[in-house]
């Protein structure tokens, strides 16, 4: 059992484990480009604007270090789309991260800010 799986793990142990994980795992495609876009988006906001991050769609996790096999789940992205719509209607600025294929909840079109 790793320190992180232990319910009594300290916050420091959890962060140490997470740091080690991200040093070993190759970032997903377009990670750097996405981070640059997010930083530009946040940089354009006023300090008093509310911002939320919504993730949507299925999750894919590698089973092994040299990734050949994945555990993948089916998700349409409807809950994430609905959440993004809710926060937009409430005046939040939304960062909407999603897989390439999702089915939007209500068919509404988001106005995307391309940085």
List the helices and strands and how they pair.
Elements: H1 11-24, H2 31-43, E1 51-56, E2 60-62, E3 70-72, H3 78-89, E4 93-98
Parallel strand pairs: 1-4
Antiparallel strand pairs: 2-3
Largest sheet: 2 strands, parallel
Q: Enumerate the spans where pLDDT stays under 50 for 5 or more consecutive residues.
A: none
Estimate percent helicity: 25-40%
Structural class: alpha+beta
Radius of gyration: 17 Å
> How far is the N terminus from the C terminus?
43 Å
Strand order of the largest sheet: 1-4
Q: Say what oligomer this is.
A: single chain
Shape estimate = globular
Key phrases:
globular; 115 residues; two-stranded parallel sheet; 16% strand; 4 strands; alpha+beta
Overview of this protein structure:
It is a single chain. The protein starts with 10 loop residues before the first helix and ends in a 17-residue tail after the last strand. It contains 3 helices and 4 strands; from the N terminus they run ααβββαβ. It has helices at 11-24, 31-43, 78-89; strands spanning 51-56, 60-62, 70-72, 93-98. The chain has a domain at 45-115. A hairpin with a 7-residue loop joins strand 2 and strand 3. The radius of gyration is 17 Å and the shape is globular. The longest helix is centred in the first third of the chain and has 14 residues, at 11-24. The chain is of the alpha+beta class and 115 residues long. A two-stranded parallel ribbon has the order 1-4. It has a two-stranded antiparallel sheet with strand order 2-3.
